[in-house]
Design brief:
With 925 residues, the protein is mainly beta. Helices cover 7% and strands 48% of the residues.
Length: 925
């Protein structure tokens, strides 16, 4: 362990480097010595400077020599017997050897030492100065005194001459002023002629050359003093009992009244010999220090001290110190962490370490055998342990149920401060963290250490969340604590990853109800909001699909309205008067592919699949059920395979046939007759195909639906009447009546079966034909003719409501309609005897839209009919159905009726108003 002056005097060097080279004119302010303490410690004067006085300042030290002030540079301090030591917080100790250059020496008995301290704060012009003087008495001089200080080695020998006392007195009187300074002139004036250094080869120098090389030499009243910094050219290292030592040997030649005298001087100071364990520092010093001790010797005194001050046995016992000897060593043991030293934090490679520093002192008095000469050996030896890693420990005090992360990080020495914390979203200072609602606290402990704590709520934006399972949430808080070490502001960091798990997920829920036509679905959000996907039947709920199902959302839930005829609805069971339909709802997490909840809602909806009409027509509706997933309804037929659906899509097939066709069977009972047919999948037998024979599959078909109709055969009705004698002859009376016109919707183009009032609303698919018939009732006058003047469709029952669309305009088709109205001929039959009394037309089912949005799924059809006298076809509509004049009639667009030109009717006509509806649109799925 080498003692380098730039290490041992680092604080002094810094001050001199900044301020010593070009000092400004100082504004000196000599204050009281508060915070300063000086005392005498054997052959040293010690000055202690409290950190409260020195903190934040840079220090410059001057030696006082009468009226002169000499700036102590590091080189001059080592040459003249001054040393300084400071801890990182500003606690400073300055040691002055009583044999120092600028100490007023009174007969080697009384010593007056003076120092001036300049403390610079913000700028060199802002300085505070303190003068410190101390008088020490020291009479216990040994024949040879060796002092090993931080930055120099010093040896002083008693000058033993026959008349040493008289000569010393005369010399002191004659040269007193010259003994207190390094002489500027030759060594002869000082009394020292030359010196021979042994390295171990001899090197001779006169005094001036030695001074220029950094050595100090002087004579006092009774002693000859030599001083050498460590690691000069003329010093050398030597291993003694395994301990490295720095050795200084010199022969000094000086003038004495009786002639030229020579004194052999030597100093050897340890630079190592320290052993460390985790708990104890062991300092080994050679028991025999050559070349200080020749021949036999004994140790007459041995003392231990701290910071230059001796300790007695009780003080040592209290602190746990020990001072012992072995055959080869003097051993001093000091517990790591003793209150006489201090800990310091370090961060090499950004990792937290600590060191412990203490400054023991060893003072030994040797006495050579058979002589009265003794040697006092005094060593001030600062010891710093190697870097001891102290990785911070984090203690997770999080209680998940409290939904608050809580962590403690520590422990640290008091010179560590928490500067910032890195969260997942960025870096925040301690102040910013507290402002964000986090709690950052510092905790101090009696032993001088500290720790830091942090509290962060689970719902803070810096906390990460993920769900390892549907009902559990894992909260993660990655942290990096950023620390600095004072006063150097050395940074280091410590990462901490916190995790907590809670069964706190409330999943979404789904409920549903039904009415006669619709499924009503309500989805309530769980604790994670709308962070899930929805499956409606086999399809994902896209924005477009949601809109078609009247999606309505608020902060807590959303709702859907799904018709039972929707494509996403599955049909489970079909009966003669109902269908059992099921809507499957599935809520899932797409990221983890978890099913969160589901609903399978099945309801019976009224549905008449078979209708038996009085004219012998039978209609039947076949529905694709879930048990036959691959069924194509268009492939279904009746027993007679030539009887195919009149309409079919991928879910429905509609059949219309007469009771005496399509392979329908007939069975008579007592008072009714049963017609039966069957809807199914049939296959042609290839072997009998040419013979025309029907053949069914040897196995039951995948789909079979029985159709049955019952008709009453015998029915008796009684008509009663009463007789009243006529009191007078009958006479004709003039009366009035009203012609009756009716408008009906036919099931198909045969115009044999019509929908009754209880059948409305009539359900139709888009572009499916609608067959209308308008008939003059209860009139047998062949001179009358029914003419359809105008027909139109509306969204509402009110015939004057808007919007509307023209179907027939001025007795003709609307030519602006891409699906033009078709007129169908009327021929006489058993029901209609006068074809002129009826008109038939058909349109294709449509709906009103606006901006490509369906306004409503139903329409009403209205007509104005005119009854004309065929003998008077003067003008207007009575010319006949769609008999145009030369001018072209205008049509009405999208409910705008104002621009339609109407011809005037003659008085030989009668107008009546008719309406039909509602007709409900069913979307294909």
């Amino acid at each position: 362990m080498k003692r380098l002056e730039n290490i041992l005097l680092w604080n002094l060097v810094a001050a001199v480097t900044i301020l010593g080279q070009a000092r400004p004119n100082k504004k000196q302010n000599y204050q009281s010595n508060s915070g300063l303490k000086s005392d005498c410690a054997g052959n040293l004067m010690r000055l202690s400077l409290d950190k409260a006085l020195a903190v934040g300042n840079q220090l410059e030290v001057e030696a006082l020599n009468g009226t002169q002030q000499i700036l102590l540079t590091p080189t001059l301090a080592a040459q003249c017997g001054y040393s300084m030591e400071s801890d990182p917080w500003g606690n400073t100790r300055i040691y002055t050897s009583l044999m120092a250059c600028y100490v007023d020496n009174k007969e080697d008995l009384t010593f007056n030492a003076g120092l001036r301290l300049h403390m610079y704060s913000q700028s060199p012009s802002d300085v505070v100065s303190h003068d410190v003087t101390q008088t020490c008495s020291y009479t216990r001089w040994a024949s040879r005194e060796i002092l090993c200080d931080r930055n120099y080695m010093e040896v002083s020998n008693y000058m033993a001459t026959p008349d040493s006392q008289a000569e010393a007195k005369g010399q002191t009187q004659e040269n007193n002023s010259k003994m207190n300074a390094i002489p500027e002139a030759s060594g002869a004036a000082h009394g020292i002629w030359k010196m021979t250094f042994y390295t171990p080869e001899p090197v001779s120098m006169v005094l001036r050359e030695a001074e220029q090389a950094g050595y100090g030499a002087m004579k006092t009243a009774n002693r000859l003093v030599m001083r050498s910094p460590y690691n000069t050219a003329e010093t050398y290292s030597e291993d003694m009992a395994g301990v490295p030592m720095e050795v200084f040997r010199v022969s000094a030649y000086y003038k004495a009244p009786q002639g030229l005298n020579v004194v052999n001087l030597a100093a050897a100071c340890p630079t190592g010999g320290v052993l460390f364990t985790e708990d104890v520092i062991s300092w080994h010093v050679p028991r025999r220090v050559t070349p200080l001790v020749d021949g036999g010797f004994r140790i007459t005194e041995m003392h231990m001290g701290i910071n230059g001050q001796r300790l007695d046995k009780s003080q040592m016992a209290t602190r746990g110190y020990s001072l012992t000897t072995t055959d080869f060593h003097i051993v001093m043991e000091i517990p790591v962490g003793s209150p006489d030293g201090y800990y310091k934090s370090h961060a090499p490679d950004y990792q937290y370490h600590i060191t412990y520093t203490v400054e023991p002192m060893l003072e030994v008095l040797w006495r050579a055998d058979n002589t009265q000469e003794d040697t006092r050996y005094k060593v001030l030896f600062p010891i710093t342990t190697p870097l001891m890693p102290r990785p911070p420990h984090s203690q997770d005090h999080t209680v998940p149920e409290g939904r608050m992360f809580s962590v403690h990080v520590g422990t640290f020495l008091d010179d560590v401060e928490l500067r910032n914390i890195t969260f997942s979203t960025g870096v925040l200072s301690v102040e910013e963290s507290n402002a964000r609602g986090f709690t950052v606290e510092e905790h101090s402990f009696p032993n001088g250490t500290k720790s830091f704590s942090l509290k962060v709520p689970f719902d803070a934006g810096v906390v990460l969340q993920h769900n390892p399972e549907p009902l559990a949430t894992v909260y993660s808080l990655p942290l990096v604590f950023g620390f600095i070490i004072l006063p150097e502001e050395t940074p280091f960091a410590h990462p901490v990853d916190l995790q907590a798990s809670l069964q706190d997920v409330v999943p979404p829920s789904v409920t549903g109800t039904c009415d006669q036509n619709l499924f009503y679905i309500s989805v309530t959000y769980g604790s994670q909001g709308s962070n899930f996907e929805t499956m409606v039947g086999p399809r994902q709920l896209t924005p477009e699909l949601a809109e078609s199902y009247h999606f309505n959302e608020n902060r807590t839930h959303y709702s859907l309205t799904v018709p039972y005829t929707a494509k996403d609805v599955a049909y489970e069971l079909l009966t003669t008067d109902s269908v059992r339909a099921r809507l499957d709802m599935l809520l899932y997490d797409p990221q983890n592919n978890w099913v969160l909840t589901d609903l399978y809602l099945a309801c019976n909806f009224p549905l008449t699949t078979t209708k038996c009409h009085s004219n012998g027509t039978i209609t039947a509706l076949a529905v694709k059920v879930e048990s036959v997933p691959n069924l194509n309804p268009g492939s279904l037929t009746l027993r007679d395979q030539s009887c195919k659906p009149t309409f079919a899509d991928d879910r429905f097939a509609y059949f219309s046939f007469s009771a005496d066709s399509c392979g329908t069977s007939r069975i008579f009972f007592d008072n009714y007759m049963l017609y039966e047919n069957e809807i199914g999948l049939y296959y042609n037998n290839k072997h009998n195909f040419n013979k025309g024979a029907a053949y069914t599959s040897p196995v039951d078909p995948d789909y079979k639906q029985l159709i049955s109709c019952y008709y009453m055969v015998n029915d008796t009705q009684t008509v009663s009447f009463t007789y009243k004698p006529r009191s007078e002859e009958p006479a004709a009376e003039i009366g009035s009546g009203q012609l009756m016109v009716q408008m009906r919707l036919s099931h198909d183009a045969s115009y044999e079966l019509f929908y009754q009032a209880e059948d409305y609303p009539v359900v139709r698919f888009l572009r499916q034909p609608l067959y209308f018939e308008v008939e003059l009732k209860e009139s047998a006058d062949p001179q009358l003719e029914l003419i359809l003047e105008n027909c139109w469709a509306t969204l509402h029952e009110d015939r004057t409501s808007l919007p509307s669309w023209d179907i027939i305009v001025d007795s003709c088709e609307n030519h602006d309609d891409s699906y033009m109205t078709l007129f169908h001929p009327v021929v006489s039959d058993s029901r209609i005897t006068l074809p002129s009394h009826a008109k038939r037309f058909s349109i294709k089912m449509f709906t009103f839209t606006q901006d490509e949005e369906v306004l409503k799924d139903e329409i009403y059809v209205h007509c104005d009919a005119v009854i004309c006298d065929t003998n008077s076809r003067a003008d207007g509509s009575c010319r006949g159905q769609c008999v145009q004049t030369a001018s072209t009639s205008d049509s009405r667009h999208q409910g705008i009726k104002g621009g339609v030109k109407r011809e005037q009717r003659s008085t030989d006509s009668h107008q009546t108003r008719l309406s039909s509806g509602p007709i409900l649109l069913v979307h294909k799925l």
